[in-house]
Amino acid sequence: MRLAIFDFLKMLFLLALAVGVALLIFKGYYGYAVLSFFMLSIFGYRLFAGHRFLYTQLREFSEAVKYRDFTRRFVVKRKHSVEGKLFEAFNQINEVYKNISIDQALQQQYLNKVINMLDTAILFYHVDSGKVMWLNDAFKELFQVPHLGNISGMKKRHAELYEKTMLLKLGKHQMETAHSSKGKIKLFMQSSEFETQEGLFRVVVYQNINEAIDETETKAWHKLLRVLTHEIMNSIGPISSLADTLHHRLENWTSESDLEDLKVGIFTIKRRSEGLLQFAKSYRMINKVDQPQFADVQVVQLFENIYQLLEPTLLQKNIDLDIVIKNTRLVIQADVNLLEQVIINILLNAIEAVKDQPEPYITLSAIEQKDNIQIRIKDNGIGMSPEIQDQIFTPFFTTKKTGTGVGLTLSKQIMLMHHGNLAVDSKEGEGSTFTLQFP
């Protein structure tokens, strides 16, 4: 307020001088008029120069704000002057923005540090221009790209990866194969978008899942080798022991009764050898599943064929089989023979599981979801423990006295060959649900 009054008085004084000069000229006092005009010129120039100086400082401050340069410090000589008040305000604004800039820089450093620590490759670019805003160290290392100015630059080094990135659906998880510094790898890809005043941006994540797959396969092989070792030792151990006993009997032949013992022993060796051969055939069966011959399969017709096949067994054992399918026109792409083999195998297991229940029932249903089609086989049988559920798809693992442990392994492999999956959900005493999932 005081500054405004002071400026007003300056302007009033300047106006009074101008009026005085005019009055002196009118009265004929030319000498005094020249002197007054000289004073008016000096005072007016100083006032103009002061305002021009403030305007220049304001313009320079605006330029500094525009280019985010908050390092300048304005020297305040007179706190209560217009210049002092303005420079003090400039310094305060500079300080606030400098602190904000420092905080943003620290946050950016923290973010860069955290994201660069991730093993997952991340790419961030502007959708319209393709300008790459940021990519982390994992991306640079995995794809051997030290710098990427524009997303289109990926065409030269990784044309296939560029194509898959451009075709990637937002929010969808996608598994792809790509070439990298580690050779040909499996990638788990996902993208998302967000919009700011500067435009639309996309973030793409590339996760190398080769190591996870290798670890899973290694565990599967360990399970398989453990089962194989167990089965072979169960057969070879008794055969070796019995052969040693028979050899000892031959060396110490004394009577005709030893001949009978030899016959029994040789027959036992023969039977166990045939069992071992059957075991080997089962293993070969797992490795020789034919490639699927894909065709349109009507789910209703598939269910009807399976029901007709199993109807005598179900009636004989007094088991209810409910078929539930809402969309009677539902069609899946599959090999009908292999698919029937999978469903029949699971239904036979379900029949075995419910046979001792007071009111045994099995439900065969088809469910159409947004991203996939599921065929579910649910029973109210004895169920399974979590430990058994972890093992049932392992080759030769079985809880049946007469089982081979091959059926569910084959079923799982067939579903994987259909680019789908086979899963189980079960609780002891509450039954089991097997789910066949198709893409």
Automatic annotation (TrEMBL):
PROSITE patterns: HIS_KIN (PS50109). It is an enzyme of class 2 (transferase). The chain crosses the membrane at residues 7-26. InterPro entries: BphY/WalK/GraS-like, HATPase_C_sf, HATPase_dom, His_kinase_dom, Sig_transdc_His_kin-like_C. It comes from the Bacteria. This is histidine kinase. It catalyses: ATP + protein L-histidine = ADP + protein N-phospho-L-histidine. GO terms for molecular function: kinase activity. It comes from Sphingobacterium tenebrionis. Keywords: ATP-binding, Kinase, Membrane, Nucleotide-binding, Transferase, Transmembrane, Transmembrane helix, Two-component regulatory system. Residues 227-439 form the Histidine kinase domain. Its EC number is 2.7.13.3.
